[in-house]
Amino acid sequence: MSAEYILETRGLTKEFRGFVAVNQVNLQVRRGHIHALIGPNGAGKTTFFNLLTKFLHPTSGSIIFNDTDITTEKPAQTARRGIVRSFQISAVFPHMTVLENVRAALQRNLGTSFHFWKAESTLTHLHGRARELLAEVDLQDFADELTVNLPYGRKRALELATTLALEPELMLLDEPTQGMGHEDVDRVTQLIKKVSSGRTILMVEHNMNVVSSIADRITVLQRGTIIADGPYAEVSRNPLVIEAYMGSANTELVGAH
Fold first, then answer.
1. Whether this model's pTM surpasses 0.85
2. What is the C-alpha to C-alpha distance for residues 143 and 135, in angstroms, rounded to an integer?
């Protein structure tokens, strides 16, 4: 695998009692890109993410990360390599402040997450970095707010900050704008673009506006199989993609919001 690709899957397949959820998927994610994985419900996107993060074992095929075959690794090993899945692993603690949530994620990265019996004063050295991460996701003014009081979109921004605290080399974002109103979608989309600088992001996303505005490359899954791969302008005009989304080859995918 070329050094320009951070992640590659080769023939990745997952069967459940005869049902093929992911079928011979060959995917290449270029280093430094935002790569979107899209497809209709039941296309196999979540199963594919679960294979990458080792919550499921593939029936066949392999996963290569930074030129190393990680197919048989355990989830913790893969996470330590720098593959971090956001909006699942990094759930926030509602009754801690925004700053305390990011600090807890920083503790976990230092291997001190179980030292909660220590005096709080011993953790103040983490506050500078925590505030930097909050600024990166535009939450610097909310540092002392209880997380439970944050609006939904800001909670997702906090989850992004706690993910960044783990210093991921590859961020897997699972439906980052799901359930959001238009204003929050726009804000979180811009945050993803902002934090992608110097990082690689693979995201499952259903919102075509989000995908078209920030993704460098798009892979389309249908029934577990890749039916298209390329930049948005090319993929959105692919008749197979239009039919998969719209049920008719006469409708522009660009109009699917």
1. yes
2. 10
